[in-house]
Amino acid sequence: ATAFKIYQPYLDHMAVKSVLENITVDYDELRKPLATIRTDINQRLYINQVSLPNQEALSIIDDKGLLKFDLKYEVRLPMFFNVDAVIKFAEYYEAVRP
Hints:
The chain is of the alpha+beta class. Helices cover 43% and strands 36% of the residues. It has a 3-stranded antiparallel beta sheet with strand order 1-2-3, with helices on one face. A hairpin with a 2-residue loop joins strand 1 (58-63) and strand 2. The longest helix has 24 residues, at 2-25.
C-alpha cells in the first residue's frame, strides 16, 4: 500500500524532470527572457497535468549567460493516523545561452 501512495509523486517528478531536461537543450527556448522561460515551463507542466507545489520550488538564475535551474521541493503524503511520508526531490541543471 505504501508503494502505491509513493508511486504518483515519483511519476510526477519524472515529468517535471523531463520538462526541465528538454528546456536545457532547446536553444530557441534558452534565447527567451527568464520570465518567458518560466511561463513556458509552467505551460509544459500543465500539459502533462503536473504542477510544482509552489513557485519557490524552481529557481532560474542567469549568471552571465549560464542559466542555472535549481529544483528543490518535497511532497508530504499522509500514510495513517499521525504518520506522514515525506519525499524530497532536488535536481540541478545548467544551460548555456546561445
